[in-house]
Amino acid sequence: MKLAIVTETFPPEVNGVAMTFGVIARELGRRGHRITVYRPHRQDLPAPEHHAEYVQVSLPGMAIPGYPLLRLGLPAKGKLMRLWRDNRPDLVHVVTEGPLGATAITAARQLGIPVTSSFHTNFHAYTSNYGFSLLRSLVLWWLRRVHNRTRCTFAPTDELCGELRGMGFTNLKLLSRGIDTACFSPERRSAELRASWQATDENPVVLHVGRMAPEKNYDLLFTIFAAMRAANPKLRFVLAGDGPLRDSLIKQHPDCIFAGFYSREEIGRYYASADIYIHASLTETFGNVLTEAMSSGLAVAGFDYAAARQFIRHGENGLVAPCDQPAALQAAAVQIATDAALRMKLRAAARAGFEQQSWDRVIGRFEGDLLAAAGLGGRA
């Protein structure tokens, strides 16, 4: 299959969508498919590495105002049509719903090329975090319009597929998330890294990894951290990542360690060297950080939806709280912080089962769905 992947985020950017499609492009290339990734050019990151498994094509883009870590791809219908007339793909897969993705769908449809899409980000839910609640209906209309113009839309959980159907999205399929169990493994625990955090065996480390942005529910996260610290003053708190809130969070919480931005490979050491992970976000479509924490052997607590609902068995390998009960999540976090026996039990059980969530299995299913969408066989 000759596959064109159109996305506004891709490695070396570090976020769930970029990571997911970096792996997918690589693994589909290794399976013999000819993969071309179309993405916005950016000068503020190192030049993309050459990969034998796929080719990258840079297109015009701009930084999102107030959020320079992410790019917005500019409309590129004419350029894509010229490129695809000369080198026609069997299928176009659109990862993101901005102007680049929307015009890619139009270009593919006008050329008669099958096109699919995937839903990764609840942008309509983010509107309230950025003070634009009145735009929620408009954003949802745009997302629905973009996706319903494709042959099918992939979403990361059955739960989200059901929610999207209820909002008028059609032709939905599952694209779950795999986990790199070698990168995210308890075996990567580092005594040296823990020592840099001034953490001994008597100091459980609470880790948070992610984009430091309003939609990640930092007010609740730090309220929970304060309750945990009051219950167990020996805790250490480490946050890894970057984003528009980082500078203000550093000023507000000088007692926490802000470790900065790290590659996927390096962040595996951070997970494995911690002990506890609290996931307070309520806007995830999946929540890769939760599965990475569990695969790394951390005691986790989160709201009961997305990845937490799929993988946590309450009281066995983690704790969950109802989405409308932040006090319950706080209580669960305090319990993990103060009950060493429970913490060790959850850590010991957290990783079990993730070998069955390998990228090989996930991508094999996705490959079959794409081949079917392209009319080249695969799964109906």
Predict the CATH topology of the largest domain.
Rossmann fold
Share of helix among residues? 40-55%
Q: Please state the average pLDDT score.
A: 90
Enumerate the spans where pLDDT stays under 50 for 5 or more consecutive residues.
123-131
Specify the biggest β-sheet: 7 strands, parallel
How many E-type strands?
A: 15
Q: How far apart are the termini?
A: 16 Å
Shape: elongated
Assembly state here?
single chain
**CATH homologous superfamily identity of the largest domain:** Glycogen Phosphorylase B
Q: What structural category characterises the helix and strand content?
A: alpha/beta
Secondary structure blueprint with pairings:
Blueprint: E1 2-6, H1 16-30, E2 34-40, E3 54-59, E4 61-64, E5 67-73, H2 77-86, E6 91-94, H3 99-111, E7 115-118, H4 123-126, H5 136-148, E8 153-155, H6 158-166, E9 172-174, H7 191-196, E10 205-209, H8 218-231, E11 236-240, H9 246-252, E12 257-260, H10 264-273, E13 276-279, H11 288-295, E14 299-303, H12 306-311, E15 319-321, H13 326-338, H14 340-350, H15 359-373
Parallel strand pairs: 1-2, 1-6, 2-3, 6-7, 7-8, 8-9, 10-11, 10-13, 11-12, 13-14, 14-15
Antiparallel strand pairs: 4-5
Helix pairs in contact: 1-15, 2-3, 8-13
General description of the model:
- The longest helix is centred in the first third of the chain and has 15 residues, at 16-30.
- The protein folds into two domains: 2-178 and 358-373, Glycogen Phosphorylase B (Rossmann fold); 186-356, Glycogen Phosphorylase B (Rossmann fold), CATH 3.40.50.2000.
- β6 (91-94), α3 (99-111) and β7 form a beta-alpha-beta unit.
- It contains 15 helices and 15 strands.
- It starts with a strand and ends in a 7-residue tail after the last helix.
- The chain is an alpha/beta fold and 380 residues long.
